[in-house]
Amino acid sequence: MKFLHKFFNKLAIPWVHLVWEHYYSRNNLPSLHRHFRGSFWWRDILKLLHSYNEMALIHNQNGSTCFMWLDNWNGIQFNQWYPELFSYAKSQQVTLSTTVSSIPLEDLFHRPLSVEAFQQFQNISTAMQTLQLSQDNDVWSYYLGSTHFSSKQVYKHMVGHSQVHSSFIWLWTSCCQNKRKIFFWLILCDRLST
Hints:
- The protein has 194 residues and is mostly helical.
- It folds into two domains: 2-158, no CATH class; 163-188, no CATH class.
- 46% of the residues lie in helices and 4% in strands.
- It has eleven helices and two strands, in the order H-H-H-H-E-H-H-H-H-E-H-H-H.
- It has helices at 2-8, 14-23, 40-46, 49-55, 78-81, 83-87, 96-101, 115-130, 151-159, 166-173, 178-188; strands spanning 56-59, 139-142.
- It has a two-stranded antiparallel ribbon.
- The longest helix is centred in the middle third of the chain and has 16 residues, at 115-130.
């Protein structure tokens, strides 16, 4: 996850520049729907792309590192908010910078549009007109609001929180030897094989 965070934020690290230039130089991005490209190391990292996209939030600057439909920018995922219009899209993996620079915007969709899709198109076209992009790199952060990567935050988000019975808390904070703690823990979990 930390490698994906460094990659999407385009940090000044040699391997980040190498991967961007070698695999994604033609304004394409790693996607969940494509076959993974690259070394064994990079393909293993891309297996976590879905988990990273679920917890990441993009603050757009130039829009070159996020998909218009598939990524969570602006607080929503457009393919879920505008499903009828999404079904008419010529490319589901178009970047936000390509969408903003596309004139006219109708060229990104198959026509004729249905009534619902046309209403959604009008909503998106007004959103695209008000969107101002700059030359800076996009900033990828987390729902928790931090732009700094923390393994602890990622782990908490992926695992969640479960309620623990007070007897377990009492057991692990007691001053017993570890072998006795484990023995009583097995009793409480009904896993003692006697």
